[in-house]
Amino acid sequence: MSEKPKVAWYWCASCGGCEESFVDLAERLLKVFETFDIVFCPVAMDFKREDVEKLPDGSIAVSLINGGIRMKEHEEMVKLLRKKSNIVIAYGACSAWGGVPGLANLYNLDEIVERKYLEIPTIENPKEILPTKKTIVNIPEAKIKAELELPEPLPTLLPIDKVIDVDYYIPGCPPTPDVFWNALQALLTGNLPPKGTVIGALQRSLCDECLLNETKPEKLLVKEFKRVEKAIPEPNKCLLAQGFLCMGPVTRGGCTALCIKANMPCTGCFGILDGVVDYGGKAISYFGSILDYSPMEEKEIKKAFESIPDWIGTIYRYSLPSAKLSHRAGLKRSKLMKEVFEI
Ligand code: SF4
Ligand code: SF4
Q1: Residues 96, 169: one domain?
Q2: Which of 127, 252, 258, 334 is the most buried (most CB within 10 A)?
Q3: Which atom of ligand 2 is found nearest the CA of 213?
Q4: Distance, CA 242 to ligand 2 centroid (Å)?
């Protein structure tokens, strides 16, 4: 019997949703286990870093990596997996472009830690305890005395292709089971697109597969931008034509327009289309072009744009760390982190 191709599945700074999408393969998972030998998967199996280190270079057929690179440990692990793998796939928006956690690049590490441990309404931290590099854990009744060391954070979150060479990208937050399945079929049959491109999804915009596309006017103009938090979209009518910021025209298709079917505008998790340089730049120029400003005064145009309180979070929700614009805040030296981690 020939050996099954080896697969590794690693998570960097991940919310766990990408792992859920693996579980969502449901009965197709049996086929995955039958076809591949999973040699590393920290979320589900007790393999250690040393197990990967012992494998010969290039012996893993495919490494799927989700989550962005936030810690030194992530950086080391993706470099190790690159060395051991034939194909490396950035799985999900965080790994491909930085994702939602990448919005933290608007802030430096001190601001992130203060927000997380002192400010957010759901935190209870009366002694204002902040993380330290080393912590002594002493629980005499359980006979436990140990020194724990936190992994070192990086100044900003990085998509994995800023650290290693990536062969393919599977988009989504998380990727849908069908997109993942399509990508697995492409890998198994060798029917792969050019290196450095997306597998499993469409090469066309989401509008192309959206059932509401036929209600989208050819010349689309809107008088205002709306948010679903403030207004309820009419059913069966293009959301963008109603003024809701739907990212469908600038986003890759392949998810079967799942959010639109639930009457929710697309937020752009399938990311950039081939040939587009910057997702947010494309989105803002598109929205600027559909605002029907000809009869408007300057203050009305301003009001229309101000109705969206967080433009960066809207147009770069999944891709700030890979944006062409610089984001200096996260790159500033962080005082607290300098004291704790000497970085
Ligand atoms: S891409 Fe989405 S689902 Fe996957 S780890 Fe990032 S936030 Fe979670
Ligand atoms: S609802 Fe969104 S995805 Fe669907 S056609 Fe309109 S703009 Fe495109």
Answers
A1: yes
A2: 252
A3: 5
A4: 10
